[in-house]
Amino acid sequence: MGKLFIISGPSGAGEDSVIEGLQKRMSLTRVITTTTREMRDGEMQGAPYYFISHEEFQQKIKDDGFFEYAELDRGKLYGVTNEELQRVKESESVGIWKMDYKGVLFLKEKEPSIPAIFIWASLDVLEERIRFRGGVDEAFILERISYAQGWFDNRDIFDFEVENVQGKLEETVSQIEKIVKS
Description:
By secondary structure, the protein is of the alpha/beta class. Helices cover 43% and strands 23% of the residues.
């Protein structure tokens, strides 16, 4: 696999903001994950996920249709289909694959040559960003912060680390652009 990079970070680290910033600077093709979670306001099929039922997801597993998949986020299923990976490989641009640290652990076993970039912020900043989004209860916030520790505990699996400092998104995007172009 060539021209493919992993972007990973805990909730609140700013991975989507970084990817949006990169898209303004260079030609990217995002690997779109399939999920069983509900579509949120502002989302649509294919942006940022392919949304399918739990039953459809289970059938794709039986049909060996996933390159990788996992159960995350309160029992919801997430995975990337073999078809999706082929679409990205055939594109003329750089492929960006956003995934959590468990996905990176799995992928580094299967395809260690794909560079993985860890985007991070301190746990205090992550919590502040999650709270700022609103619409979530305290248990959800605590669950996300607890889960975030997994990135820090497994930081050695990443090829690059970039801190997304509060108020300095453009600097973060620039650092990651340099990594991708090098």
